[in-house]
Write a structure and sequence with these properties.
With 411 residues, the protein is α+β, with helices and mostly antiparallel strands. Helix content is 48%, strand content 14%.
Length: 411
């Protein structure tokens, strides 16, 4: 009896390989990277391949597989280029390549990296006390404890500087009251870095914004998973209510003094969003290219049609520009010359370009483009989230406009 699958008229191909890595790099942007950076990139590739089937199922079911987060930590992929003696040091290029590769595999995992490493771990490494770092730093880095960064509020997204969550002194501790929304890992059972405004008219720091390390099992901490997401379905974001949460005096991160400290963290992660967008766009372009060379219509591969080749060229145009942006970001950061608005421009360009690439890839795949098994639709949905978070397109444009004109258009 033959082991070959039976063939049926009208179905010469049962499925298409749209997830094989093609290592697209038309301008050889990454051809000269050193062995240490390449080893980190290869580690990310191996991780993505290991967890890919699990993540595809988790995205479809809107489940958050915490073991994949811990595995990311075990492989030392969470440290995100943060410079701290207790953490493995990755170059900006290596950190970017890891971000790109993990996002190419799965956008939810890319957001895990952004939240766990880019936001939570970076906040602790930059602003935490020695005692806070001794207790939590390596546990965040190895994924044994999940961390979240709670800045955005239901009423304050783009204008997060207007946050209303307050912290009041109570004896030798603090009482925190407010609400936060869209907080990755905020209902994971780990720890949350909560940004709050000091409410103490007798204190010099009244009105200042500071950050508090709160364990999520504290009484009054209520984290509810946000349901119904069409994007980043395999990581949970939370709506958090802080109902007079009492924390000790040493819960405050001593290095945080104002909203500018929160901005320092966000500026660093905007580079990461640019790399993440590149990963998504790479996946979409490579899926489209693979599909075009194997999908037969009118007796020949659709890659032979002029319109298809033109669309692939438009995708390659955007993809190559995104690669150049990211490589230059890494070079500037390595030299200590990266300015926040340069990261903003990369984020602004790359998420917009990723949307274009995904739309063209979805169109090129025709009806097959809406199937999750062909990867493009999932990436297309996930791109919508990264296009918004860490500062919307409009906010990035205003930051850049202020920088190039010297005049602020913020309300």
């Amino acid at each position: 009896m033959s082991d070959e699958a039976p063939s049926f008229p009208g179905q010469s191909v049962e499925s298409y390989d749209t997830s094989t890595r093609l290592d697209s790099d038309y301008y050889a942007v990454f051809s000269d990277i050193g062995p240490e950076d390449r080893a980190a990139w290869d580690r990310a590739k191996a991780y993505v391949d290991e967890v890919a089937p699990q993540m595809a199922d988790a995205w479809d079911r809107a489940e958050y597989p915490l073991d994949t987060v811990r595995r990311m930590g075990e492989l030392d992929l969470v440290v995100d280029g943060i410079d701290h003696p207790s953490l493995t040091r990755l170059s900006p290029l290596a950190a970017g390549l890891i971000n790109m590769e993990i996002s190419r595999g799965d956008g939810s995992l890319g957001t895990v990296l952004a939240v766990q490493g880019g936001l939570a771990l970076r906040t602790l490494a930059l602003f935490g006390s020695p005692a806070q770092q001794d207790k939590w730093l390596t546990r965040l880095a190895d994924g044994s404890v999940l961390g979240s960064f709670a800045l955005t509020e239901p009423d304050h997204g783009s204008d997060s500087v207007s946050l209303e969550t307050v912290a009041r002194r109570d004896g030798d501790g603090w009482v925190i009251r407010g609400a936060k929304k869209w907080i990755g890992n905020g209902a994971s059972g780990g720890i949350t870095f909560v940004w709050a405004r000091i409410d103490d008219e007798s204190a010099a720091e009244h009105g200042a914004v500071r950050c508090f390390l709160i364990e999520q099992d504290r009484p009054g901490y209520i984290g509810t998973v946000i349901r119904g997401k069409a994007s980043l379905r395999a990581i949970h974001q939370a709506h958090i209510l802080l109902d007079d949460v009492r924390v000790p005096a040493d819960a405050v991160l001593p290095g945080t003094k104002s909203f500018k400290d929160a901005s320092t963290v966000l500026y660093a992660t905007r580079s990461g969003v640019a790399w993440s967008a590149l990963g998504h766009a790479t996946a979409c372009y490579e899926a489209a290219l693979s599909y075009a060379t194997t999908r037969i219509q009118f007796g020949k591969p659709i890659a032979k049609f002029q319109m298809v080749q033109e669309r692939l060229t438009h995708m390659l145009e955007d993809l190559t520009a995104m690669q150049l942006y990211c490589r230059r970001l890494a070079d500037l950061e390595t030299a200590g010359e990266l300015r926040p608005t340069q990261a903003s421009l990369a984020k602004f360009h790359n998420t917009r370009a990723a949307r274009r690439v995904a739309a063209l890839a979805r169109d090129l795949l025709g009806g097959n483009g809406i199937l999750l098994e062909n990867t493009v639709m999932q990436h297309m949905a996930d791109i919508e989230a990264i296009h918004t978070y860490e500062g919307t397109e409009s906010v990035q444009a205003l930051l850049l406009g202020r920088d190039i004109t010297g005049m602020s258009a913020f309300v």
